[in-house]
Design a protein that fits this description.
This protein is mainly β and about 600 residues long. Helices cover about 5% and strands about 45% of the residues. The chain has two helices and 49 strands.
Length: about 600
């Protein structure tokens, strides 16, 4: 068979020169003819090999990110409610929430030209000299993740963000960050908003919902009065030691030498507290509050119950489902208006009929001191009764309930958080309301026998990070109790029973240590095998922490695991410890 290849070497007019190539091997000739296809196939094969190798390497190097929540009732494990939506509690890695507002603690420039801003929840914003921006979370011990010299702490979580700024009317600057947060600044007043979608604005900044946080927009001194106007239209009037909040829906007249406002639509001070961080919080009769910072600037909070103070310092301003009564006002016509620190009010007329006003600022008084109008959001009573502990209850059609204590004080909670005593006319035995919670964490819906109600407990997805330089695995997540009763929980690590699946052999847990910060409580470095517990399936669990999560509160968990290398030699280098973090909700056996 002829195997030589002939190619056109030269083509001229009326003449074609053909040249014979010197290949006689048919295999070589095949490669020459199909070399493009062959080279492409080889390249794709190499790429696949590389990708598979890298994927396998990462799967072996990292640890399992599986996380689940189970519940204990005696020796029985009840699987979690499939209807629980973890999005309700998705929060930042270090326990810092994704909602709410925090206030400025300090802003300074380092010797390298970096600008660092500290906020009250421990978050820092660093703008480096080259324009790079980092959002830095607090460390597990609560320290700022970057020090005053601009050095990032080893265990601090930080992320690079970009920003864009917008200047509104009145010279208010809003800086939007790529993670969805924002910073609002006006004349030295700075607040940090975790979710910029909560900013209410038109041509100018108004407030941050739902807590109703607004900032000082104008401050003037007139005839011995200090007049502070906030961005949402509310006024603070200071005359000597007296301070008044004026309803933003009423008029305040300010001239060069006079200020006038309606005394029936203004509210005086009920309390004032000086905090260790230099801030002063003044609480007012209508349930609102004003924060005065160390620079003398003012921030208004419509719902003072949303201000969270930790260690006598402002931590955050975040929505709170409960509202406590702050002040009751009796009008000349006999109507009584009770104000709450969740921004609401309850109107009780002379006949004892009640109505719930979502925003107490919608209640307007006339010159006689009686209610002239209620602008919006009025809810009616749908039922009333008594709680099992004896307090009077009024349920409104917006899902809120007013509870009257024996001392005359009152509070607002969601209607689903209460249980009423059955009507005395009923011939049936008392049965619990399936739509409400129960104050006994061990009795679930109150039927006895240790049945546990899981509807109020949520656990966020666990987030694992690995510090390669220090060989520390850190896991963070949130436990939230939206129920009206305190719940007990246990955090464990359940060891896997088949190490061969991970292509490794077992490292004894006595060589593994953990430390943690759980709900603000520090757990010192501890050997993993110091508290061993076998569940009802016989699985080996290593107990990390036993604790409680209070009603309508959250517990943040920051757990670090590492190998104690001191007692190890080279014979252990191919061994590892693998386990799954589990949270157990403990039911009462009675």
């Amino acid at each position: 068979m002829k195997t030589n290849l002939f190619k056109v070497r030269e083509k001229k007019e009326k003449k074609i020169v053909i040249e014979e190539e010197k290949y006689k091997n048919p295999l070589i000739l095949f490669f020459i003819r199909h070399k493009s296809f062959i080279l492409m196939s080889i390249g794709l094969l190499l790429l696949c090999i590389i990708l598979i190798s890298v994927g396998l390497a990462f799967s072996l190097f990292g640890s399992s990110s599986d996380f689940d929540i189970t519940y204990i009732e005696g020796d029985e494990i009840i699987q979690p409610n499939p209807d629980v939506d973890d999005e309700d509690v998705m929060e930042e890695l270090t326990g810092v929430g994704t909602e709410g507002v925090v206030v400025l603690v300090d802003r300074f420039m380092t010797s390298d030209g970096d600008i660092i801003t500290y906020f009250s929840d421990g978050v820092s914003i660093v703008v480096e000299a080259d324009g790079t921006i980092y959002k830095v979370y607090p460390t597990s011990s609560g320290e700022y993740g970057v020090d005053r010299n601009g050095n990032y702490l080893d265990d601090a979580v930080r992320g690079r963000v970009t920003s864009r700024s917008e200047t509104l009317e009145g010279n208010t600057i809003i800086t939007y960050y790529s993670d969805g947060s924002a910073q609002v600044e006006h004349n030295g007043v700075i607040i940090y908003v975790r979710d910029s979608d909560n900013i209410e604005r038109e041509s100018n900044f108004s407030e941050v919902i739902p807590s109703g946080v607004s900032i000082e927009s104008n401050n003037s001194n007139i005839n011995g009065f200090s007049v502070i106007e906030f961005s949402d239209g509310t006024y603070l009037i200071i005359s000597g030691d007296n301070k008044y909040i004026v309803n933003r829906n009423t008029e305040v007249s300010v001239s060069d030498n006079d200020v006038s406002y309606d005394r029936y639509n203004s509210f005086g001070t009920i309390d004032e507290t000086q905090l260790d961080d230099g801030n002063t919080i003044t609480y007012f009769e209508d349930g609102s509050a004003v924060i005065k910072d160390i620079d003398g600037k003012y921030i208004y909070v419509n719902k003072s119950g949303d201000i969270v103070v930790k260690d006598n310092k402002i931590y955050e301003i975040i929505t709170n489902d409960r509202g406590d009564s702050t002040y009751s006002k009796r009008c000349p016509d006999g109507n009584v208006i009770t104000y709450y620190d969740n921004g609401a009010a309850v109107i009780t007329d002379v006949g004892g009929n009640k109505s719930y006003v979502e925003d107490s600022g919608d209640i307007i008084y006339n010159s006689s001191g009686n209610i002239s109008s209620v602008l919006d959001d009025v809810s009616s009573v749908i039922s009333s009764g008594k709680m099992e502990t004896g307090e009077s209850v009024t349920n409104f059609d917006n899902g809120k309930s007013e509870i009257i204590n024996s001392d005359g004080s009152s509070y607002i909670i969601d209607s689903t958080d209460i249980k009423l005593v059955e009507d005395s006319d009923s011939n049936d035995e008392e049965e619990p309301n399936d739509d409400v919670g129960d104050d006994d964490p061990g009795n679930g819906n109150g039927t006895g026998g240790g049945t546990i109600d899981t509807s109020g407990i949520y656990v966020s997805d666990a987030e694992n990070t690995y510090n390669y330089s220090m060989s520390i695995e850190t896991t963070t997540f949130i436990i939230r109790n939206k129920d009206s009763a305190t719940r007990e929980f246990r955090i464990v690590i359940e060891e896997v029973d088949d190490y061969s699946r991970y292509n490794t052999s077992r490292l004894e847990p006595r060589f593994v240590k953990f430390q943690a910060v759980i709900g603000g409580e520090y757990v010192a470095p501890t050997s993993l095998d110091s508290n061993v517990w076998n569940d009802s399936d016989g699985s080996v669990n290593y107990v990390i922490y036993d604790g409680v999560v209070r009603a309508r509160s959250t517990v943040s968990v920051n757990l670090s695991l590492y190998v104690d290398y001191a007692p190890l030699d080279n014979s252990y280098q191919d061994k590892g410890f693998i386990g799954t973090i589990k949270v157990y909700l403990i039911a009462d056996d009675e």
